[in-house]
Amino acid sequence: MSESDHEYEYESFLKVAILIAKKAGNLINNAISSPDKQFISKSGETDIVTETDKAVEDLIRRELFSLFPDHEFIGEESEFEKGLTMIEDKPTWIVDPIDGTLNFVHCNHLTAVSIGLAINKKIVLGVIYAPMRQDMYTVISGKGAFKNGIPIHVSKVHDLNRAIITYEIWARSKDEHKEHQLKNLSILCSNVMAIRSYGSACMNLCLMAEGQVDIYIDTGIRVWDMVAGALIVQEAGGVVRHTDGSEFDAMSRSILVTSSPNLIKEIVDLKLSEPKVKRDHTDKITL
């Protein structure tokens, strides 16, 4: 297959992902007004899974397999139950049906559907749709990042003391993890201009890509939280790394994104505390 064939195929895949994300978004918006949303606690986790999570993932899986029966699928709700299996080189859709589930429960507009595609263990395209805001973020590797069809770019902030950073603190996380977070929060407060917490990894990455924040750092999130958003940030001119400054790997459960290489160095030099978390898989998925 020629390079132009690949580009055509990626464009076709992206159009499909956009249409499916909109259908998923309609399901989410319809559920928002429902007075009887059902909540089920995820065992051992701090977030909530709703029946809508499952319904949205089922819709996305069904739509993708109807068009691409030979592709693979990794979804948050299904993989949480059985764990990740071997990652193959064939096209693999990686999906978070509702990122920011707690935001969704409280009708907070920072709620998103994330659909990413990896081929040969490389992220090639992605879609993040915030249905309550009706904002669609799209990306194809090497083609730039867009919000509602308009190109977006990271901020021009290069100095840590002028940076707004997004850093999530989970009130119900394990004590050990919480200790790391609070220690890091103290360090960051002394070195950055401001700290924000939005409750959605996908939206953190999108806000980063359009220049509303300058740094996003997180440890403990999952592959489906990062895949589409990481590529969106990179194509918007940002730098995407592991929290220690090494090459980004979506299976590592760790991400550091900044608007400039200098900010990567400044954050790494702070020697932030990092809790030990189990990888999502021994295989790597990279940009």
Automatic annotation (TrEMBL):
<dbReference type="InterPro" id="IPR020583">
    <property type="entry name" value="Inositol_monoP_metal-BS"/>
</dbReference>
<feature type="binding site">
    <location>
        <position position="99"/>
    </location>
    <ligand>
        <name>Mg(2+)</name>
    </ligand>
</feature>
<dbReference type="GO" id="GO:0007165">
    <property type="term" value="P:signal transduction"/>
</dbReference>
<keyword id="KW-0479">Metal-binding</keyword>
<dbReference type="InterPro" id="IPR020552">
    <property type="entry name" value="Inositol_monoPase_Li-sen"/>
</dbReference>
<keyword id="KW-0460">Magnesium</keyword>
<comment type="similarity">
    <text>Belongs to the inositol monophosphatase superfamily.</text>
</comment>
<dbReference type="GO" id="GO:0006021">
    <property type="term" value="P:inositol biosynthetic process"/>
</dbReference>
<dbReference type="GO" id="GO:0008934">
    <property type="term" value="F:inositol monophosphate 1-phosphatase activity"/>
</dbReference>
<dbReference type="GO" id="GO:0046872">
    <property type="term" value="F:metal ion binding"/>
</dbReference>
<dbReference type="Pfam" id="PF00459">
    <property type="entry name" value="Inositol_P"/>
</dbReference>
<dbReference type="InterPro" id="IPR033942">
    <property type="entry name" value="IMPase"/>
</dbReference>
<comment type="pathway">
    <text>Polyol metabolism; myo-inositol biosynthesis; myo-inositol from D-glucose 6-phosphate: step 2/2.</text>
</comment>
<feature type="binding site">
    <location>
        <position position="225"/>
    </location>
    <ligand>
        <name>Mg(2+)</name>
    </ligand>
</feature>
<protein>
    <recommendedName>
        <fullName>Inositol-1-monophosphatase</fullName>
        <ecNumber>3.1.3.25</ecNumber>
    </recommendedName>
</protein>
<feature type="binding site">
    <location>
        <position position="76"/>
    </location>
    <ligand>
        <name>Mg(2+)</name>
    </ligand>
</feature>
<dbReference type="GO" id="GO:0046854">
    <property type="term" value="P:phosphatidylinositol phosphate biosynthetic process"/>
</dbReference>
<dbReference type="InterPro" id="IPR000760">
    <property type="entry name" value="Inositol_monophosphatase-like"/>
</dbReference>
<keyword id="KW-0378">Hydrolase</keyword>
<feature type="binding site">
    <location>
        <position position="98"/>
    </location>
    <ligand>
        <name>Mg(2+)</name>
    </ligand>
</feature>
<feature type="binding site">
    <location>
        <position position="96"/>
    </location>
    <ligand>
        <name>Mg(2+)</name>
    </ligand>
</feature>
